[in-house]
Write a sequence for this structure.
């Protein structure tokens, strides 16, 4: 589950979730990476007077656009790779 998905679900339940970028939470992380330490670091970062900039939760349409964009990039990359292989094979057979 992504932070954006959880944020949307919590908004539907009447809460006001805030998404803090990981780059602002990382300095407060103590010790090994586990859920407890991560939650403690997030709480520490959120309580600071110089609160970090918040991220607006993406709506479903934005998420779908991002997924379609990355999927089309993977398809186009795969097609370019296939064209390269076909081109290489034809050069090899011509030699």
């Amino acid at each position: 589950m992504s932070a954006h998905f959880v944020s949307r679900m919590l908004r539907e339940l009447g809460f006001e979730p805030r998404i803090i970028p990981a780059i602002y939470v990382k300095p407060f992380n103590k010790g090994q990476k586990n859920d407890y330490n991560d939650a403690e670091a997030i709480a520490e970062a959120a309580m600071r007077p110089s609160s970090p900039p918040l991220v607006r939760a993406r709506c479903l349409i934005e998420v779908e656009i991002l997924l379609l964009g990355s999927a089309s990039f993977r398809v186009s990359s795969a097609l370019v790779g296939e064209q390269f292989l076909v081109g290489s094979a034809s050069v090899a057979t011509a030699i």
